[in-house]
Amino acid sequence: MKRVMVFGAHSDDETIGLGGTIALLSEIGYEVYVVTFCWSRQADWGDTGYSRVEWKGKIEEMRRREAEEADRILGVKERIGLGIPTQGVVNDRATYQHIVLLIRQVRPFAIFTHYHRDKHRDHRAVSQVTEEAWWKASESVLADLGEPWRAEALFFYEIFELFTRPTHIVDITRTFQRKMEALRCFKSQMPLLGDILGYVEGLAKARGYPIGAAYGEALLRSNLMPSKLLASLEELEDR
C-alpha cells in the first residue's frame, strides 16, 4: 500500500505543482510513480517547448535528461512515459484504458493529477482521463487489464490556476529546497516560464500560511467516488 501515482502532462508539471509532496512521501517510505503523458524513455515529447530556434530537434532529449535529474532529486521510484505529442493529449478510449491498466499494475494508495479547470488543454485532458480511470480501475470490468484496484483517494494539484478552497495543504517546509533544486533542473523551460522560481516560492509561502508552515502545497480532493473515513494526507507520515 505504500505507493502513490502522480499523473502529469509534461515533464516539469509534477515538480511545479507537487514537488515538495513527492519528496516528502519518498522520504517517509512511499514509492512514487510519475506518469507523464508527453514523455517517453526515448525522448520527451515536449517538442513545442523550445524558446530558441537552434533547440528545435534537440528539445526532446534536453527535457528527457532534465526530468531524469529532477526525479533523482525528488526520489521518484519510476517515471512512466506515454509518448503522446505535446498539445495532443485526448481523453479517448485507448488512453483511458491504458491509465486503468497502469493503476491496476501499480496499485497505489493515492493518486495525484492536474486540476480540471486548468487552461492548458493537455492538463485538462490528463485530469479528466485520470479521474475517470481511477473509478473504472476499481470496477470488475476489463478483466484483461488486470485485477480491480481502488486507490483510496484522488487529489488535484495546482500549477497556475489556483484553488479557491483547497481541501488539504501539505507542509513541505523540510522538502522545499529539494523541490527548488529539482525545478532548477528544467533549464530549457526557464525562458518560457519567466520567474518560475519566484512564483513557486511565493505560492508555497502563501499556501503554508494558513497551517502555520513556512511552505506548503495545496490539494483538492476529488469527490467522484465516496469513501470511508480516511486519515488526511498530512497524517500519512504516521503510517
| Unreliable sequence segments | 48-55
Global Rg: 17 Å
**Structural class based on helices, strands and sheet pairing:** alpha/beta
Q: What is the 3D form?
A: globular
Largest sheet: 7 strands, mixed
Fraction in beta strands: 15-25%
Could you report the average pLDDT, rounded to the nearest whole number?
89
CATH class designation: Alpha Beta
Strand order of the largest sheet: 3-2-1-4-5-7-6
The CATH topology: Rossmann fold
Describe the oligomeric state of these chains in a short phrase.
Answer: single chain
SSE series: EHEHEHEHEEHHHE
- Based on DSSP secondary structure assignment, what is the total number of beta strands? 7
CATH architecture: 3-Layer(aba) Sandwich
* Terminal CA distance: 10 Å
Q: Can you give the helix content as a percent range?
A: 25-40%
Number of spatially distinct domains? 1
What's the CATH superfamily, by name?
Answer: LmbE-like
Number of helices, counting only DSSP H or I runs of 4 residues or more: 7
Short description:
The protein has helices at residues 13-27, 59-74, 93-106, 121-136, 176-183, 190-193, 196-208, and strands at residues 3-8, 31-36, 78-81, 110-114, 153-157, 168-171, 216-221.
Give structural notes.
The protein has 239 residues and is an alpha/beta fold. The protein has a single domain, classed as Rossmann fold, CATH 3.40.50.10320. Helix content is 36%, strand content 15%. The protein is built from 7 helices and 7 strands. The chain has helices spanning 13-27, 59-74, 93-106, 121-136, 176-183, 190-193, 196-208, and strands at 3-8, 31-36, 78-81, 110-114, 153-157, 168-171, 216-221. The protein has a 7-stranded mixed β-sheet with strand order 3-2-1-4-5-7-6, sandwiched between helices. Strand 2 (31-36), helix 2 (59-74) and strand 3 (78-81) form a beta-alpha-beta unit. Helix 1 runs antiparallel to helix 5 (176-183), helix 2 (59-74) runs antiparallel to helix 5 (176-183) and helix 3 (93-106) crosses helix 4. The longest helix has 16 residues, at 59-74. The protein is globular and about 45 Å long. Residues 48-55 have low confidence and may be disordered.
